[in-house]
Give the backbone structure.
Amino acid sequence: MANAESVRLQVFSLNCWGIRYLSKHCSQRYAMLGDMLYKKEHDIVLLQEVWSEKDYLSLKQKLASCHPHSHYFKSGVIGSGLAVFSKHRIHDTFLYRYSLNGYPYMAHHGDWFGGKAVGMAVLSIGSLIANIYVTHLHAEYCRDKDPYLPHRVVQAWELQQFIRHTSAGADLVILGGDLNMHPQDLGNRLLRTSTGLRDSYLETAKFDGCEDGMTLIADNPFISKNEILPFEKGLRIDYILYKGSPKVNIYCDYMCTTKGSVPDHPFPYSDHEALTAELRLETHTPSEAQSDKKLWKHDSAAGKVAELVDIMTEARTEVKVGLHCAERMRYTATRTGVMGLALLFLELAIAAVPYLALGAEQPFPLTSFYMLAGLCFAILLTTFLLYIFKTMELKSLQGAEDQMRLAIGSLQEKLRGFPLAQPHSTQRRPPEGLEPSAFDPEE
Amino acid sequence: MANAESVRLQVFSLNCWGIRYLSKHCSQRYAMLGDMLYKKEHDIVLLQEVWSEKDYLSLKQKLASCHPHSHYFKSGVIGSGLAVFSKHRIHDTFLYRYSLNGYPYMAHHGDWFGGKAVGMAVLSIGSLIANIYVTHLHAEYCRDKDPYLPHRVVQAWELQQFIRHTSAGADLVILGGDLNMHPQDLGNRLLRTSTGLRDSYLETAKFDGCEDGMTLIADNPFISKNEILPFEKGLRIDYILYKGSPKVNIYCDYMCTTKGSVPDHPFPYSDHEALTAELRLETHTPSEAQSDKKLWKHDSAAGKVAELVDIMTEARTEVKVGLHCAERMRYTATRTGVMGLALLFLELAIAAVPYLALGAEQPFPLTSFYMLAGLCFAILLTTFLLYIFKTMELKSLQGAEDQMRLAIGSLQEKLRGFPLAQPHSTQRRPPEGLEPSAFDPEE
């Protein structure tokens, strides 16, 4: 690669924990963050949980000179909370709202109101087209018994679909955000294997930060021990992922995280740790790249595809669990609704029969009558809304499962086309930046 | 193009009007449709308004031998109603649900429950990768005063975004469906100009069908005259659009529509007319294509970009109108909610004061008390739900407007980079199949 041109790119990602009036020291933390971003002048800043547009606008004003290009993605009732700031021109943006994102009646968890999504910004970095993605997946409130797991798996499925299908024309792809998934969690494996995205923490030549790259740590004063249980020290759930193209190789030279505090400040930027990755882009002539790619492609493709089929099958199973739960809930809602209706009829009958038959005065105590009628209407309305919501949830889960089944079938078909013996299938490593997705069409 | 290889592709599209028990002769029409599709063996069949999965499954069974590959897209409460049948293998599918799609409280219009979306299927046709899209946009119930216009414009905006961003890796793109927009409607112009998609009705060498390519006609026995007012003969709102790539040129050799009846049958397939387009794909070597493309690109790009800026500005204005209406509705909901709350407090005060002050018996008639309390609760609940829904609508409208503003800015920047004089800018026609989108990045 003697002719390769090299470009450096600093990418920053942080879940800002920006709930006005509820998150501790919210405005002070935004001020600290703004100062730091102004000083450090990263090329690309990816923020999550910027729940108030006012905070985005004040950051935008502060960073106008160093990050003249920015976009705030809007979704849901108070979201999406996603924002991008960039030194490089943003040509175009696009937002994909996940079809599943928790439940509105779980208001104390709030995820549904955030309208979780993945935002995309198309940047030009010199002559290169970069697709930058920022996302925030549904939180995990209880690892042992996580009712949101099927939703998060569907979100990861839709995220990989979105990235795979929208990045074909890009020279490089960067995804930053709070995935709310541990490195080896199903959704994370699905995302990385199907898109070919690489984890900057695993790829970096040099790392400075929390142990094991953790981004939610016990040492952070905003974190209570209970939040990270059963893990003592913390979790790694925030990521900067990247991949190149036949035209560009990407290397991660350095990566760092904050460590639960900020020097000369009384508290950290957020309850999450901030991530910074220093990427080096090496552009080269397509002909060089093509030959590199071909060299590798026939060597490990079968292994990748087989791995992806396994992961997808696992994901499908998880979606089926979600389907089962949603069906049960919808059945319960239907039954309760029918009982509410029966109760209403019964009440009306009890009230009407003596009145009609005997012409006597109403014997039913009025207070009880109205209270009971009110209760019946409340039951009917609640179960009706629940039924509608659960039907929509079922449709989305079924839709994801259908898509997974089709994709698995297609990949299995592809596998049948590979020669039987693949002795080096997963041993040889592709040249950096050329990690293809297992979905790449064969030619 | 002496070396060009030629492939023929028959594409069929129909809005099936498939509401079980409500649409007239629904099951008989599906049977007729299945027989015809089995006989005609189109390469790709794109259906809309297949509201029941059972109908999809019975079609799938009937067409198993001629269309072994199919997919049904699920969305919303009863939707999305979109289905694809194909002779060629479907490798992968993806669904984008529009962020705006009417109102749940407009239940008699039903669009919200359909979860309108655009479905994508990635097919391999020989060595070519084809991205096939099927969609159905929000209906237009009153052309003069259309309250859904901003929603449909945002749907058209999201549709063009989705197609543009997901089709970079495709050799050819086909979109079929019921756009619920006339040929010169804002959303239609936006879609065609930004994606470079071509209308098969306008491009076809030979046409056989209704006057002006109409697809909703007065001669169809399922159509009442009122539905198509103020147009006497009918409207053209269903389309098959296509575009090629540097590798493939597409020509439409023949196009036809049904004409309101089906020979030897008592009624037509649907209230919409069915469309069939015969496309010819000519693949050639990339080098040939590249030079063709370059030749054309510098010639008409500025004109295209300027046109797109105008259309987007128009779309932005329409979205702003929608924003204004949604804001007003949200304000009304808030005010009504506050009044409901005040009424409840007033009632409680009237009931409580004499009781507390005088220790006397309750003077408030019990029936009125409970009726009024019930009314207050109903007002509070309704306005609360409306407030939440309107806030989400506002977020989506604002999001679309932000994206449009950014895209317009970026295109204007691009325009500034063009040489001032562009005398031939819109006169010269590009070679078939090479219609680029005005968004194509400059290189």
Observations:
- Chain A has two domains: 5-284, 287-443.
- The first strand of chain A starts at residue 5 and ends at 15.
